[in-house]
């Protein structure tokens, strides 16, 4: 079986390798701000815009995704077992949860009642937003294979940082088995302005989701102003409200482009003849939304460089956090993405925060202020 996996992996890499960025593809992307965004729209749209070396996007239809997923969306990055590459069930630092991974041609939904039953097609931008119209419905750039129950749990809620008010539903944990969660938006600092329910994937895939959203609002620039969605502000330029723009920028900057995204982008180019510019050129994001990037980066940079966690490795099962900035929350995750401790509005004692009663292991410590968030690694011997 391992031999078959290896052969498939080699074939997949060879297939994708033929679809690199064509020479001159981004030659007309010369502007900045929303001018650049419109230039990118013309490069990746389905219209003949008179560009030199132009590639016109083709709509392969929603049903074609059933054949696309098994060819491209396989896990050769984490477990390396060619199972379904599902961002809602994958545990990057360890084996997948009980019931996973899914396998193509045997675990498609179907009916489901709990996590791990089956997988189906997730529209990162809910199809209800555009009334299930084409070509949006079948655009592979924002379609992902995901756990059917978690897909239904996410529903059509926007993406954001969950600050509290976790939702309880039968047949599913919250956070889910890989640590994704649904609850009220954090609604503080740069992420304020929306207090409704949002869905938060794990850190490993936050950048993926952000770049998909940036692609979508660029590709459909001429239509998006007519769509109603909590993430959108009714314009065709900024598109995202400040709340969700800062959220997507933060995810993009803190989770760089992965090899998985690069390979998938190349495969989609072969499938529908257009690319996600923000995977090929991540710098385009801050060239378009430069003011917001500067605001976010200055606050995050300041926070990141004025914080320390000690002793590390921990002594006596406890660590201290020193920062001049008041913390809004301290969340400790294990390597499976499960929350071990969560302290909201922690109290500073002698100029430091204390996290105690830590069991042995390797952890990620997420520290959040009103306007920024950072993650530190902690070892407890």
| Oligomeric composition of the shown chains | single chain
Indicate the proportion of strand residues: 15-25%
What is the helix fraction of residues, given as a range?
A: 25-40%
Number of helices: 10
**Average pLDDT rating:** 90
The description of the largest β-sheet is:
4 strands, antiparallel
- SSE order in H/E notation? HHHEEHEEEHHHHHHEEEEEEE
Terminal CA distance:
38 Å
Radius of gyration: 21 Å
**Number of E-state strands:** 12
What class, by secondary structure content? alpha+beta
Strand order of the largest sheet: 9-8-11-12
Shape: globular
Number of domains: 2
Q: Pick out the low-confidence regions.
A: 1-17
Task: Explain how this protein is built.
The chain has two domains: 2-300, no CATH class; 307-380, Sandwich (Immunoglobulin-like). The protein has helices at residues 2-17, 33-44, 65-72, 148-154, 206-219, 242-254, 259-272, 277-280, 283-288, 290-304, and strands at residues 119-123, 143-147, 162-164, 181-185, 197-200, 307-315, 318-323, 329-334, 339-344, 353-355, 361-368, 373-380. Helix 5 crosses helix 6 and helix 6 (242-254) packs across helix 10 (290-304). The relative contact order is 0.12. By secondary structure, the chain is an alpha+beta fold. Helices cover 29% and strands 18% of the residues. The protein has ten helices and twelve strands. A four-stranded antiparallel sheet has the order 9-8-11-12. Strands 3-4-5 form a three-stranded antiparallel sheet, with no helix packed on it. A three-stranded antiparallel sheet has the order 6-7-10, with no helix packed on it.
């Amino acid at each position: 079986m391992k031999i078959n996996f290896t052969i498939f992996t080699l074939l997949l890499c060879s297939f994708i390798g033929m679809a690199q960025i064509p020479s001159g593809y981004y030659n007309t992307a010369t502007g900045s701000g929303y001018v650049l965004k419109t230039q990118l729209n013309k490069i990746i749209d389905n219209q003949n815009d008179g560009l030199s070396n132009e590639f016109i996007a083709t709509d392969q239809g929603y049903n074609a995704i059933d054949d696309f997923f098994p060819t491209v969306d396989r896990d050769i990055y984490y477990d390396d077992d060619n199972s379904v590459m599902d961002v809602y069930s994958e545990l990057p630092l360890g084996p997948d949860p009980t019931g996973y991974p899914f396998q193509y041609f045997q675990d498609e939904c179907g009916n489901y009642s709990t996590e791990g039953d089956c997988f189906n097609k997730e529209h990162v931008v809910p199809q209800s937003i555009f009334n299930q119209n084409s070509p949006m419905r079948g655009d592979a750039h924002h379609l992902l294979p995901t756990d059917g129950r978690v897909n239904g749990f996410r529903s059509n809620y926007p993406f954001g940082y969950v600050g509290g008010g976790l939702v309880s539903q039968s047949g599913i944990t919250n956070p889910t088995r890989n640590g994704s969660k649904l609850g009220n938006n954090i609604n503080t600092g740069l992420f304020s302005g929306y207090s409704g329910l949002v869905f938060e994937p794990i850190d490993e895939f936050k950048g993926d989701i952000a770049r998909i959203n940036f692609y979508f609002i660029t590709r459909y620039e001429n239509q998006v102003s007519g769509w109603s969605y909590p993430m959108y502000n009714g314009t065709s330029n900024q598109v995202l409200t400040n709340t969700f723009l800062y959220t997507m920028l933060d995810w993009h900057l803190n989770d760089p482009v992965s090899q998985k995204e690069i390979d998938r982008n190349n495969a989609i180019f072969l499938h529908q003849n257009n690319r996600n510019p923000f995977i090929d050129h991540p710098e385009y994001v801050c060239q378009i939304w430069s003011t917001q990037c500067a605001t976010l980066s200055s606050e995050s940079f300041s926070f990141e460089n004025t914080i320390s966690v000690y002793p590390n490795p921990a002594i006596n099962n406890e660590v201290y956090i020193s920062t001049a900035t008041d913390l809004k929350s301290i969340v400790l995750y294990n390597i499976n993405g499960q929350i071990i401790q969560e302290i909201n509005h922690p109290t500073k004692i002698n100029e430091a925060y204390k996290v105690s009663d830590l069991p042995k292991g390797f952890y990620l410590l997420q520290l959040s202020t009103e306007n920024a968030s950072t993650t530190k690694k902690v070892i407890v011997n």
